Amino acid sequence: MNVLVVLAHPNPASFNHAIAGTMADAARRAGHEATLRDLYAERFDPLLTLAELERDAVLPPAIEAGCREAENADVIAIVHPNWWSAPPAILRGWTDRCLRAGRAYRFEPDGKGGGRPVGLVKARAAVVVNTANTPQAVEDSVYGDPLEVHWTKVVFGLCGLGGKVVRRNFTPVIASTPGQRAAWLDEAAELMQAALG
Predict the structure, then answer these.
(1) Residue 36, helix vs strand vs coil
(2) Residue 182: which residues within 8 A CB-CB, separation 6 or more?
């Protein structure tokens, strides 16, 4: 199987990098192909251009490659910190540019005057791992866990993965011990193994 791991954190020494590397390694150890895209290291340009809005637009080579990676992945894993209850802007740009309408999803009439999404991504599962410093209970009770909605219902829901998305929030990282981080890395590997199942 093909596994795509997309990482969005600017610090190469970050815990996010350790998580993404662990997930890619878990896929490789299980005998699968794994591509790790470090958006900051690659200097990914998050700006969707006017020329790209057309459904049949000729895309820049890097964006075309990103679209194909997402289309051909059997498992998609996303790793990023929680910044302002949202992914970093560079990852939002990757979503805009590489999970394109007409390639990752499309809309068709719903018979009620609106449109309904049809997912086009072939992936069998998606795994999203976030890091944060807000305790999960606060994230749920005060903010409504917006990243859960963003990834499971909005992004991967439109792409057709619906109930095949697993999201985990490792928090609070700022107060975590080396032992806790090691346990989280073990969990990240287990999440990948389960997705490959």
Answers:
(1) strand
(2) none
